[in-house]
Design brief:
Helices cover about 25% and strands about 25% of the residues. The chain is of the alpha/beta class. Strands 3, 4, 5, 8, 9, 16 and 17 form a seven-stranded mixed sheet that branches. Strands 12-11-10-13-14-15 form a six-stranded parallel sheet, with helices on one face. Strands 1-2 form a two-stranded antiparallel sheet. Helix 3 (about 165-185) packs across helix 4 (about 200-210) and helix 3 (about 165-185) packs across helix 9. It is globular, with a radius of gyration of 20 Å.
Length: about 375
Protein backbone atom coordinates (compact mmCIF):
# COMPACT_ATOMS: atom_id res chain seq x y z
CA UNK A 1 0.00 0.00 0.00
CA UNK A 2 1.17 3.52 -0.77
CA UNK A 3 0.16 7.06 0.11
CA UNK A 4 -0.08 9.82 -2.46
CA UNK A 5 2.24 12.68 -1.55
CA UNK A 6 3.39 16.03 -2.89
CA UNK A 7 6.63 17.90 -2.42
CA UNK A 8 9.06 20.31 -4.08
CA UNK A 9 12.04 18.79 -5.90
CA UNK A 10 14.75 19.68 -8.43
CA UNK A 11 15.30 17.56 -11.52
CA UNK A 12 18.82 18.83 -12.24
CA UNK A 13 21.53 20.91 -10.60
CA UNK A 14 20.59 23.87 -12.80
CA UNK A 15 16.80 23.79 -12.31
CA UNK A 16 14.58 25.28 -9.63
CA UNK A 17 12.54 23.33 -7.13
CA UNK A 18 9.01 22.69 -8.35
CA UNK A 19 6.04 20.52 -7.29
CA UNK A 20 6.48 16.77 -7.65
CA UNK A 21 3.77 14.20 -6.98
CA UNK A 22 5.09 10.88 -5.66
CA UNK A 23 4.15 8.05 -3.32
CA UNK A 24 5.21 7.08 0.21
CA UNK A 25 4.90 3.53 1.50
CA UNK A 26 2.42 2.90 4.31
CA UNK A 27 4.18 2.53 7.69
CA UNK A 28 5.76 -0.87 8.33
CA UNK A 29 5.40 -2.50 11.73
CA UNK A 30 8.18 -0.37 13.27
CA UNK A 31 7.48 2.88 11.41
CA UNK A 32 5.38 6.00 11.88
CA UNK A 33 3.84 8.33 9.33
CA UNK A 34 4.15 12.02 10.04
CA UNK A 35 2.00 14.87 8.76
CA UNK A 36 4.67 17.54 8.22
CA UNK A 37 3.96 20.97 9.70
CA UNK A 38 7.33 22.66 9.21
CA UNK A 39 10.67 21.98 7.54
CA UNK A 40 13.81 24.06 7.91
CA UNK A 41 15.91 25.26 4.98
CA UNK A 42 19.52 24.19 5.57
CA UNK A 43 22.51 25.44 3.56
CA UNK A 44 23.30 21.79 2.83
CA UNK A 45 19.95 21.57 1.03
CA UNK A 46 21.34 24.06 -1.45
CA UNK A 47 24.65 22.23 -1.78
CA UNK A 48 22.79 18.96 -2.39
CA UNK A 49 20.29 20.37 -4.90
CA UNK A 50 23.10 22.02 -6.85
CA UNK A 51 25.24 18.85 -6.69
CA UNK A 52 28.15 20.68 -5.06
CA UNK A 53 29.31 17.42 -3.46
CA UNK A 54 28.96 15.36 -6.65
CA UNK A 55 26.61 12.74 -5.18
CA UNK A 56 23.12 14.11 -5.82
CA UNK A 57 20.42 11.73 -7.02
CA UNK A 58 17.64 13.40 -9.01
CA UNK A 59 14.86 14.16 -8.57
CA UNK A 60 16.21 15.69 -5.34
CA UNK A 61 13.60 16.63 -2.73
CA UNK A 62 15.46 18.25 0.18
CA UNK A 63 14.52 18.69 3.81
CA UNK A 64 16.05 17.17 6.94
CA UNK A 65 14.68 19.48 9.63
CA UNK A 66 11.17 18.06 9.86
CA UNK A 67 8.54 18.71 12.53
CA UNK A 68 5.03 17.32 12.43
CA UNK A 69 2.35 15.18 14.06
CA UNK A 70 2.25 11.40 14.02
CA UNK A 71 -0.83 10.34 12.06
CA UNK A 72 -0.30 6.57 11.77
CA UNK A 73 1.82 3.92 13.47
CA UNK A 74 2.87 0.36 12.73
CA UNK A 75 1.67 -2.41 15.05
CA UNK A 76 5.03 -2.72 16.86
CA UNK A 77 5.53 1.00 17.50
CA UNK A 78 5.83 1.86 21.21
CA UNK A 79 7.81 5.11 21.34
CA UNK A 80 5.31 7.38 19.60
CA UNK A 81 1.54 7.67 19.39
CA UNK A 82 -0.88 9.29 16.99
CA UNK A 83 -1.04 13.00 17.77
CA UNK A 84 2.52 13.29 19.15
CA UNK A 85 4.58 16.27 17.99
CA UNK A 86 7.80 14.78 16.65
CA UNK A 87 10.86 15.60 14.59
CA UNK A 88 13.07 13.95 11.99
CA UNK A 89 16.62 15.11 11.39
CA UNK A 90 19.35 14.18 8.93
CA UNK A 91 19.05 10.38 9.24
CA UNK A 92 16.23 7.87 8.91
CA UNK A 93 18.20 4.63 9.37
CA UNK A 94 21.68 3.08 9.62
CA UNK A 95 23.18 -0.39 9.29
CA UNK A 96 22.70 -0.98 13.05
CA UNK A 97 25.43 -3.64 12.99
CA UNK A 98 28.77 -1.82 12.91
CA UNK A 99 30.68 -0.71 16.01
CA UNK A 100 29.65 2.98 15.78
CA UNK A 101 25.97 2.02 15.42
CA UNK A 102 26.17 -0.34 18.40
CA UNK A 103 27.84 2.46 20.40
CA UNK A 104 25.04 4.92 19.59
CA UNK A 105 27.05 6.84 16.99
CA UNK A 106 24.90 5.90 14.00
CA UNK A 107 25.88 9.18 12.32
CA UNK A 108 29.34 7.62 11.93
CA UNK A 109 27.91 4.35 10.59
CA UNK A 110 30.57 2.26 8.85
CA UNK A 111 28.10 0.04 7.00
CA UNK A 112 27.86 0.05 3.22
CA UNK A 113 26.93 3.58 2.07
CA UNK A 114 26.95 4.69 5.73
CA UNK A 115 23.74 5.93 7.39
CA UNK A 116 20.60 6.44 5.35
CA UNK A 117 20.01 10.12 4.69
CA UNK A 118 16.56 11.65 5.10
CA UNK A 119 16.86 12.61 1.45
CA UNK A 120 19.19 11.84 -1.45
CA UNK A 121 19.75 8.29 -0.21
CA UNK A 122 18.73 4.87 -1.50
CA UNK A 123 15.22 3.80 -0.57
CA UNK A 124 16.42 0.92 1.60
CA UNK A 125 19.22 0.88 4.16
CA UNK A 126 21.67 -2.03 4.01
CA UNK A 127 19.98 -3.55 7.06
CA UNK A 128 16.76 -3.93 5.06
CA UNK A 129 18.21 -5.68 2.01
CA UNK A 130 18.72 -9.40 1.44
CA UNK A 131 22.47 -9.09 0.80
CA UNK A 132 23.35 -6.29 3.25
CA UNK A 133 24.15 -3.89 0.41
CA UNK A 134 22.32 -0.90 -0.96
CA UNK A 135 22.94 1.08 -4.11
CA UNK A 136 21.69 4.31 -5.60
CA UNK A 137 19.01 3.85 -8.17
CA UNK A 138 15.97 5.44 -9.70
CA UNK A 139 14.24 5.31 -6.32
CA UNK A 140 15.82 7.60 -3.75
CA UNK A 141 14.67 9.05 -0.48
CA UNK A 142 12.59 12.21 -0.59
CA UNK A 143 12.89 14.69 2.26
CA UNK A 144 10.79 17.09 4.23
CA UNK A 145 9.89 19.62 1.55
CA UNK A 146 6.71 17.55 1.36
CA UNK A 147 3.41 16.95 3.11
CA UNK A 148 4.18 13.60 4.73
CA UNK A 149 7.04 11.26 5.61
CA UNK A 150 7.39 7.68 6.91
CA UNK A 151 10.28 6.90 9.26
CA UNK A 152 11.52 4.13 11.59
CA UNK A 153 10.27 4.96 15.08
CA UNK A 154 13.73 4.95 16.69
CA UNK A 155 14.94 7.65 14.29
CA UNK A 156 12.05 9.93 15.26
CA UNK A 157 12.54 12.54 18.03
CA UNK A 158 10.11 13.87 20.60
CA UNK A 159 9.65 17.65 20.35
CA UNK A 160 9.19 19.23 23.80
CA UNK A 161 6.09 21.35 24.23
CA UNK A 162 8.22 24.27 25.43
CA UNK A 163 9.68 24.77 21.93
CA UNK A 164 7.46 26.33 19.23
CA UNK A 165 7.01 23.77 16.45
CA UNK A 166 8.41 26.05 13.74
CA UNK A 167 11.48 26.88 15.85
CA UNK A 168 12.13 23.23 16.69
CA UNK A 169 12.84 22.35 13.05
CA UNK A 170 16.38 23.84 12.75
CA UNK A 171 17.43 22.29 16.06
CA UNK A 172 17.27 18.91 14.31
CA UNK A 173 20.29 19.85 12.16
CA UNK A 174 21.78 23.23 13.07
CA UNK A 175 21.23 22.57 16.75
CA UNK A 176 22.69 19.09 17.02
CA UNK A 177 25.52 19.81 14.55
CA UNK A 178 26.87 22.47 16.90
CA UNK A 179 25.80 20.88 20.20
CA UNK A 180 27.45 17.50 19.49
CA UNK A 181 31.06 18.76 19.18
CA UNK A 182 30.69 21.09 22.15
CA UNK A 183 29.54 18.14 24.25
CA UNK A 184 32.22 15.83 22.83
CA UNK A 185 35.08 18.25 23.55
CA UNK A 186 33.66 19.16 26.93
CA UNK A 187 32.76 22.83 26.60
CA UNK A 188 31.88 24.01 30.11
CA UNK A 189 31.16 27.09 32.19
CA UNK A 190 34.00 29.61 32.05
CA UNK A 191 35.54 28.29 28.82
CA UNK A 192 36.57 30.73 26.11
CA UNK A 193 34.81 29.57 22.93
CA UNK A 194 35.17 30.99 19.43
CA UNK A 195 32.40 30.62 16.86
CA UNK A 196 33.44 31.20 13.25
CA UNK A 197 30.53 32.34 11.10
CA UNK A 198 27.10 33.60 12.18
CA UNK A 199 24.60 31.91 9.93
CA UNK A 200 22.07 29.18 10.64
CA UNK A 201 24.59 26.98 12.46
CA UNK A 202 26.63 29.81 13.95
CA UNK A 203 23.78 31.59 15.68
CA UNK A 204 22.66 28.31 17.29
CA UNK A 205 26.26 27.63 18.36
CA UNK A 206 26.39 30.99 20.13
CA UNK A 207 23.13 30.37 21.98
CA UNK A 208 24.15 26.87 23.04
CA UNK A 209 27.66 27.86 24.12
CA UNK A 210 26.31 30.77 26.18
CA UNK A 211 23.79 28.41 27.82
CA UNK A 212 26.68 26.08 28.70
CA UNK A 213 28.29 29.01 30.51
CA UNK A 214 31.05 29.75 28.01
CA UNK A 215 32.45 33.18 27.14
CA UNK A 216 31.80 33.46 23.42
CA UNK A 217 33.67 35.32 20.70
CA UNK A 218 32.18 35.43 17.22
CA UNK A 219 34.38 35.70 14.13
CA UNK A 220 32.64 37.09 11.07
CA UNK A 221 33.44 38.80 7.78
CA UNK A 222 30.25 40.88 7.97
CA UNK A 223 30.19 44.03 10.11
CA UNK A 224 26.39 43.96 9.97
CA UNK A 225 26.51 40.85 12.18
CA UNK A 226 28.31 42.54 15.08
CA UNK A 227 25.13 43.76 16.78
CA UNK A 228 23.16 40.51 16.19
CA UNK A 229 26.05 38.45 17.59
CA UNK A 230 26.12 40.50 20.78
CA UNK A 231 22.35 40.31 21.04
CA UNK A 232 22.67 36.51 20.95
CA UNK A 233 25.04 36.62 23.92
CA UNK A 234 28.51 36.91 22.42
CA UNK A 235 30.86 38.94 24.62
CA UNK A 236 33.13 39.86 21.73
CA UNK A 237 32.91 40.04 17.94
CA UNK A 238 36.00 40.03 15.72
CA UNK A 239 35.93 40.99 12.05
CA UNK A 240 38.05 38.46 10.20
CA UNK A 241 41.20 40.12 8.90
CA UNK A 242 41.66 42.35 11.96
CA UNK A 243 45.31 41.44 12.52
CA UNK A 244 45.63 43.27 15.83
CA UNK A 245 42.58 41.53 17.26
CA UNK A 246 43.95 38.15 16.23
CA UNK A 247 47.32 39.03 17.78
CA UNK A 248 45.65 40.03 21.04
CA UNK A 249 43.74 36.76 21.17
CA UNK A 250 46.65 34.35 20.71
CA UNK A 251 46.64 31.38 23.12
CA UNK A 252 43.27 32.37 24.57
CA UNK A 253 40.62 29.86 23.38
CA UNK A 254 39.65 26.50 24.84
CA UNK A 255 37.60 25.57 21.80
CA UNK A 256 36.86 27.09 18.38
CA UNK A 257 33.98 25.87 16.23
CA UNK A 258 33.85 26.77 12.55
CA UNK A 259 30.34 26.79 11.08
CA UNK A 260 31.30 28.31 7.72
CA UNK A 261 29.73 26.16 4.94
CA UNK A 262 32.34 27.01 2.32
CA UNK A 263 36.10 26.54 1.87
CA UNK A 264 37.98 28.85 4.27
CA UNK A 265 41.39 29.26 5.88
CA UNK A 266 42.12 27.47 9.14
CA UNK A 267 45.57 28.93 9.86
CA UNK A 268 44.40 32.26 11.36
CA UNK A 269 42.57 30.40 14.13
CA UNK A 270 45.21 27.85 15.14
CA UNK A 271 47.38 30.38 16.97
CA UNK A 272 44.34 31.50 18.97
CA UNK A 273 44.06 28.10 20.65
CA UNK A 274 45.45 27.39 24.08
CA UNK A 275 47.63 24.37 24.75
CA UNK A 276 45.58 21.17 24.28
CA UNK A 277 42.73 23.13 22.72
CA UNK A 278 40.72 22.13 19.65
CA UNK A 279 39.58 23.77 16.41
CA UNK A 280 36.60 21.86 15.02
CA UNK A 281 35.01 22.36 11.59
CA UNK A 282 31.38 21.36 11.06
CA UNK A 283 30.19 23.58 8.25
CA UNK A 284 32.36 22.73 5.24
CA UNK A 285 32.18 19.33 3.57
CA UNK A 286 35.07 20.26 1.32
CA UNK A 287 38.86 20.36 1.30
CA UNK A 288 40.20 23.18 3.46
CA UNK A 289 43.44 25.04 2.66
CA UNK A 290 46.70 23.84 4.22
CA UNK A 291 47.90 24.83 7.66
CA UNK A 292 51.18 25.25 9.54
CA UNK A 293 51.67 21.95 11.39
CA UNK A 294 54.33 23.55 13.59
CA UNK A 295 51.63 25.62 15.26
CA UNK A 296 49.77 22.42 16.15
CA UNK A 297 52.86 20.64 17.45
CA UNK A 298 54.19 23.45 19.62
CA UNK A 299 51.09 23.63 21.82
CA UNK A 300 49.63 20.14 21.31
CA UNK A 301 46.63 21.64 19.55
CA UNK A 302 44.07 19.61 17.66
CA UNK A 303 42.32 20.09 14.31
CA UNK A 304 39.07 18.15 14.23
CA UNK A 305 35.77 17.69 12.47
CA UNK A 306 32.30 16.63 13.54
CA UNK A 307 29.36 15.34 11.51
CA UNK A 308 25.81 16.24 12.59
CA UNK A 309 25.10 14.20 15.76
CA UNK A 310 23.57 10.96 16.98
CA UNK A 311 19.89 10.36 17.56
CA UNK A 312 20.57 10.42 21.32
CA UNK A 313 22.37 13.76 21.02
CA UNK A 314 19.56 15.17 18.91
CA UNK A 315 17.04 14.35 21.62
CA UNK A 316 19.44 15.79 24.20
CA UNK A 317 19.76 19.11 22.38
CA UNK A 318 15.98 19.37 21.97
CA UNK A 319 15.57 18.82 25.71
CA UNK A 320 18.46 21.21 26.49
CA UNK A 321 16.86 23.94 24.39
CA UNK A 322 13.52 23.41 26.11
CA UNK A 323 15.16 23.56 29.54
CA UNK A 324 17.12 26.73 28.79
CA UNK A 325 14.52 28.57 26.72
CA UNK A 326 16.61 28.39 23.54
CA UNK A 327 15.10 28.55 20.07
CA UNK A 328 16.57 29.39 16.67
CA UNK A 329 15.72 32.75 15.13
CA UNK A 330 13.50 31.77 12.23
CA UNK A 331 11.58 33.36 9.40
CA UNK A 332 8.60 31.27 8.31
CA UNK A 333 7.91 31.19 4.57
CA UNK A 334 5.43 29.46 2.24
CA UNK A 335 6.94 26.71 0.13
CA UNK A 336 6.23 28.73 -3.01
CA UNK A 337 9.06 31.07 -1.91
CA UNK A 338 11.66 28.34 -1.42
CA UNK A 339 13.67 29.12 -4.57
CA UNK A 340 13.95 32.78 -3.59
CA UNK A 341 14.91 31.64 -0.09
CA UNK A 342 17.77 29.56 -1.53
CA UNK A 343 19.10 32.68 -3.25
CA UNK A 344 18.84 34.74 -0.08
CA UNK A 345 20.63 32.06 1.96
CA UNK A 346 23.49 32.02 -0.55
CA UNK A 347 23.66 35.80 -0.29
CA UNK A 348 23.49 35.62 3.54
CA UNK A 349 20.28 37.64 3.56
CA UNK A 350 18.51 35.72 6.33
CA UNK A 351 18.60 36.13 10.12
CA UNK A 352 19.05 33.26 10.69
CA UNK A 353 17.02 30.32 9.41
CA UNK A 354 14.15 29.93 6.96
CA UNK A 355 11.45 27.46 7.92
CA UNK A 356 8.81 26.32 5.44
CA UNK A 357 5.19 26.28 6.60
CA UNK A 358 3.74 23.16 4.99
CA UNK A 359 0.22 24.52 5.29
CA UNK A 360 1.12 26.37 2.09
CA UNK A 361 1.78 23.03 0.36
CA UNK A 362 -1.49 21.57 1.61
CA UNK A 363 -3.31 24.56 0.21
CA UNK A 364 -1.59 23.91 -3.14
CA UNK A 365 -2.72 20.28 -2.96
CA UNK A 366 -6.29 21.33 -2.24
CA UNK A 367 -6.31 23.63 -5.25
CA UNK A 368 -4.78 21.07 -7.62
Amino acid sequence: MTIKALGYAANHSFTKLKPLAFERAEPAADEVRIDILYCGVCHSDIHQVENDWGNTVYPCMPGHEIVGHVVATGERVTRHAVGDLVGVGCMIDSCRQCEPCRAGDEHHCEGHNSWLATYNGPMKAASQTDDGVNTYGADNTYGGYSNTVVVKEDFVLKVPAAIPAEAAAPILCAGVTTFSPMRHWGVKAGDAVGIVGLGGLGHMAVKLAVALGARVTVFTTDEDKVAPAKALGASRVVIEGDKQAYKDLELSFDFILSTVPEKHKVDPFITLLKRNATFCAVGALTELPGYNNQELIMHRRTLAGSLIGSIKETQEVLDFCAEHGIAPDVEVIPIQEVNAAFTRVKNENVRFRYVIDMASLKQEMAEA
